[in-house]
## 1
Amino acid sequence: MHFIFKTEEKMSQDGVVVRVVFEKKPDAEIVKDGKTKFLHISIGTKPITRRLLIILVRKIITTARKHKIKKIALALSDIPTPKDISPYELGSLFAENALMANFEFNSFKTRPKEGWGEVEEVFIYGADSQFKKGAARGVVVGEEVNKSRILSNTPGGDMTPKLLARKIKEACRGTGIIVKILGENEMKRLKMGAVLGVARGSEEEAQFIILEYKKGKKGEAPIVLVGKGVTFDTGGLNLKPTGGILDMHLDMSGGAAVAHAIIAAAKLKVKKNIVGLIPAVENMPSGSSYRPGDILKSMSGKTIEVLNTDAEGRLILADALTHAKKYKPRLVVDVATLTGAAVAALGQRASAILSKDEKLIETCMKLGEESGEYLWPLPLWDEYEDEVKGNFADVANSAVSGTRYGDAIHAAMFLSQFAEGYKWAHIDMAPRMVAISSDHLAKGSAGAPIRFLVKLLENF
């Protein structure tokens, strides 16, 4: 998709003209008026907000795709915009969401003769220099969101830990990001017993992917992003049911988000020191799998009692959070499709955020709202800590009481045992792993929460 900025007023020469109207019933249709075709978008009668604006932009593109329109023209003066959005923000928001709505995962489909139906050109009238600058940023962010969606949507057989590491390394070329990939021998030397324990059941070798971007002041403490990279999660010996296993090639979406957020920051030339840590494994059942009741020794030295092999994500993150201490970070944020409990608590419209730092939660929620990646807090009170203390080890990877309630909190409390000594927040993005119909995005990965992470890297 190309954005073309114009000043003439003859929009009808450039494509189907977008007209946004306020009517009671939100709808979209093609209307002909003489020689001019209009894409008539009704957005209801509610006051326009940043959230509604995001959906409006996506709806323009998805409606154009539905009607096989290749070129659209619109005047910014016709797009309702909240007063608190600057032209720069509007340009970024418009470009990233248009690109996201124009994306569809077709890597394994035969291309039809008429093509995939993408919108090829968007002619924009009335854009000032700030809108154009914002749009340039939005193109970078939107493209990286879509690249992460390709990684996440790729089937597990075609996206093993080694293939994920290779794809991320290729994506980092030319960005100034230093990529280091640790194999199982290196992880053994570092005593990453939790990562290696989860990986035991698979024939595919675990990888520990490290991204280092050093464009901040020399000696400045970095921001560290940690992403869960389970390339396929069967649940291990605690095997998932059929309905729960189908989308588990997406269980590395946190890792994909971390990688492409850092790549976006590099392309935007963010002047920060940034580190990405992505432990990548398959969680498979076999004769060599780790078992319920096993005790793993983590990199931190703490022992972990395995009560459920399907609580594997928090295990691999434990070693990654310990490794993060090496960098003496000023902030660590981990991102993971961690628990179904987060989905049960929040539905599919926001990711859960947990931290003992209330000010950090407040900052992240604000940046989430601005970016369109919504975050909502769950408690991480000290009272929950007893529930993750092991009977026969230091900690347990599931509630020792056996309760099926509150697992999103238990998972975060477990992680907090390995995130001591630095400012830390945990984002359970399981609710936003896949797009829902009201997102006006293609099926599959929603690309969350890259837009938030880029904002965080720019502004923290």
## 2
Amino acid sequence: MVKIKNIKGRQVFDSRGNPTLEAEVYSDNGSAFAIVPSGASTGTHEAFELRDKNNNDYLGKSVFTAVANVNNLISKALKDIDLNDQSKIDKILIELDGTEQKKKLGANAILSVSIACCKLAAIENKTPLFKYLSKNKDYLLPVPLLNIINGGVHANNNLDIQEFMIRPENTNSFSEAIRRSFLVIQNLKKMLDNTNVGDEGGFAPNFKSNDEAIEIIIKSIEKSGFRPDKDVSICLDVAANELKQPKNIEYYLNLIDKYPIKSIEDPFAEDEWDSWNNLTKNTNIQIVGDDLFATNKKRLNRGINEKSANAILVKLNQIGTVSETLDVIDHAQKNDFKTIISHRSGDSEDTFIADLCVATKSSQIKSGSLARSERVSKYNRLLRIEDALGNSIKMAKI
């Protein structure tokens, strides 16, 4: 048994330059740290992010209260607990908080410790993180969804759809998927007058309409020598919670008919269940629930029963612990839902989600564009895993 000796929290900064929380967990032999991300478009059903709203030194965004919770309450509760017992660690954290959305301690405090404990356990076991996380030692590399044009709250432009993504199709390796993505992005860059990037590394120019953005992506795919739909497809994250003017089912059906779109995330607001059910029933593409499910098993269960979607976006900080996240992924996959592991718009150099994706055989990963080191770090981690496992690891099939 390897015991937790100490836990230390500290305030650090995320990719948007905002404060966030880092926890470092110590054993007798060493330590491991984890940094929690933060979303810009967040659903009301997500676990609670604790910030010091009255601290004007950081414009109400500091996390010193959450840091104190790590250093005092959490550190004391987990002292001498076995690092290898992730479920026990997370159970203690959940019970110590005692609220459904983790409002007492803050999901940011809880998650930072949960992930850091998991990382340190892998180190203590002298095994790569993805192997430590895996149940059956059977792995798959995910297909990347790359956000190459930013809109909505991720960019200061006039696009209301939040993310215009590309997804390489039918590749035999992760490195080939990234090669295709690189070429499309570089050719898109040449076509744009403004190559400023948004929060997730995608370009953030002004377009007259969502259609114009989609059409220029199609041109960049073709210019790269690929076939739209067959080699590289288009995926959208509408983030409908943020829309000033909601879109209807006909709008999406027309888009799907007109363009090579293979996936739409959050086409409707988080509680418009009937609209979700109808769209999923009337199309055969991937319909992804993000704010709809909030990585929450209860909400996912409703979506499974009502056939509200056929895929779930998984964000650790929406639920708050590693164990709960793994449970949601397992439940989704057992019910034939695709699982897509996702970053947040305010992210960091932490690459935990890359290992999580491989360990859980999740079919896709969202980590942003091939720009900004906090995005690219996840892709680089997956390339290292591919290199380490060689021919023994295959790409996920969608």
